[in-house]
Amino acid sequence: LDFINPESAERFVEKGWDEEKQMYYYLVYFNKETKH
Fold this sequence. Notes:
about 35% strand
């Protein structure tokens, strides 16, 4: 993931645990999708 402001990225990322896959996952919130 490439954040412009790494220190402010915390507010938009939520870490979770998937019991089924035994894996962590990240939910990322954004206002609009940017195409590279």
